[in-house]
Amino acid sequence: MRTEPTTYNLLNSISLPEDLRRLSVEQLPEICKELRQDIIKEVSCNPGHFAASLGTVELTVALHYVYNTPYDRIVWDVGHQAYGHKILTGRREAFSTNRKFKGIRPFPSPEESEYDTFTCGHASNSISAALGMAVAAARKGEKDRHVVAIIGDGSMSGGLAFEGLNNASSTANNLLIILNDNDMAIDRSVGGMKQYLFNLTTSNRYNQLRFKTSKLLFKMGVLNEDRRKALIRFANSLKSMAAQQQNIFEGMNIRYFGPVDGHDVKNIARILRDIKDMEGPKILHLHTVKGKGFEPAEKEPGIWHAPGKFNPETGKRIKADTSNLPPLFQDVFGETLIELAEQNPRIIGVTPAMPTGCSMNKMMEAMPGRAFDVGIAEGHAATFSGGMAKEGMQPFCNIYSSFMQRAYDNVIHDIAILRLPVVLCLDRAGLVGEDGPTHHGVFDLAYFRPIPNLTLSSPMNEHELRRLMYTAQLPDKGPFVIRYPRGRGVLLDWKCPLEEIPVGKGRKLKDGKDIAVLTLGPIGNIAAKAIEQAEKEKGISIAHYDLRFLKPLDEELLHEVGRKFQRIVTVEDGIRKGGMGSAVLEFMADNGYAPHIRRIGVPDTFIEHGTIQELYHLCGMDEEGICQSIINFEL
Ligand SMILES: Cc1ncc(C[n+]2csc(CCOP(=O)(O)OP(=O)(O)O)c2C)c(N)n1
Ligand SMILES: CC(=O)[C@@H](O)[C@H](O)COP(=O)(O)O
Ligand SMILES: [Mg+2]
What we know:
Strand order of the largest sheet: 7-6-8-9-11-10-15
CATH superfamily of the largest domain: Thiamin diphosphate (ThDP)-binding fold, Pyr/PP domains
Number of domains: 3
CATH architecture of the largest domain: 3-Layer(aba) Sandwich
Bound molecules: thiamine diphosphate, 1-deoxy-D-xylulose-5-phosphate, magnesium ion
Largest sheet: 7 strands, mixed
Number of strands: 17
Radius of gyration: 28 Å
């Protein structure tokens, strides 16, 4: 693979956008080249999101060149494409700490930089947030303040983006929306909007062809100046009628520009200058290539969305040997779903834009037509599943825990009330690591626990996951939530017979006399080691129960614990407030037991980013922390 030499003649002279603005337009391509090289070099050894930022290099440079940032507001959608923005806004030095514990944050964050204007991480919020800012600026009389939202084609498939567009079209504002269209989400973009954007490109080619033809006729003398003007007037009137009919944005009163080559930095800068002060809402449609400038990433943008470490010279990814490790929970889900679907023809798979992330791609490949990627549309994924369940299907809808927050009402209104048998698999439940507070799946236990009709479960290992999935699709189980974390399980031999688990039944893993430890989910494996350690260190005897279900609770098990123990420790990979520990507290109080209860879990604060190990340590949820809590639990 050919790579560019890494010299930073211009980039070294830029610490803030005002330095960039002192360059000539002619120098912009060079700065883009250096910026791109810098991103490649840094991300190769300090992994993170990669291909998306390569695709926005020219746009980023043009934006900071033309706009008076940070006074002008740039709102990134998701923020995984904003590494160039970080480097140009005073964080080049710190960029080597990107995503690391105590280092700079994974996504733009106003708490980190005044150039970061809003919370980033979850898709499709940029238009709404930017519109809010534009309206606020107008209310405050800040006529010279510009607001720009940058949203990808994948994020544009989200319902929230449509809500923002709808409001932007009917509210007085000068917002500029930049649509960064690379025909990719993490996997391929899906849906009608993708097709529509493609059609816009085709119609643009047609327009250009028409323009070129008229120029040619003119040259050939077929058209004189008067005829040409009349033809243009006629074509324009047709164009504006057609634009209104054909262009959804124009039809909504949002002026549409494009599509434009998103890698021609000088042209983007020129267009931005031209449209900057135009009144009313505008959309600029850019075509970009995800992974631009790094051949392997251009070829396989899905894999290079977040590729891990790689060699920047050869383009080879540096992968650890995982052959002797337990499987990823997501893969156990993916494989088991196919097994179940082979036996149960009613099973349908649904994922909102995370087929590779949650391994639904396995079923999509093995059973085309029986598993759907519905786009970045968590609310729709839930309601769509509800609709199918209502008609006798058995959907398995897999949504990352933190993204499920988007679908809260859909689960209540469109699944739980009718007790529809949708299996909601929450991948990435618990602390997820380097993606930080927006992505930690720590609220699900607390937010789903109050909802009637839901069964809430979490497997301690791969066998339990398989059995819970089997159980959930048996008749009359109603809506059934199964949460499991990012990463690997604990069993090398993860295949096991698919057997029913009685709903609401936990397990006593170990008897004990002095303290009872109650766990939910895979964190129970860490607790088991901590128990062993604490018994050794303190010479006490500790019982361990795996609750398996948070709802319904295993009342028999809890009565036993209430009767036998004065000291109870609960351990969960989720927010302490309202979660499993809270449920145990309530149960004990409601049933006349008065044990002392120590709850281990995520405290009442947003947990930063870092490795999962670092964050577990921070929250006292690692082996050492759990062991200390047990040892220091005096009456
Ligand atoms: C609500 C939500 N759902 C899913 C995701 C996971 N996610 C992150 S980036 C991404 C793809 C975004 O595609 P696009 O906006 O086109 O950006 P690109 O990566 O192509 O630049 C997805 C699905 C998310 N961040 N937020
Ligand atoms: C930006 C974003 O939301 C995703 O790319 C997310 O980082 C994926 O997380 P996983 O790596 O856990 O699939
Ligand atoms: Mg995209």
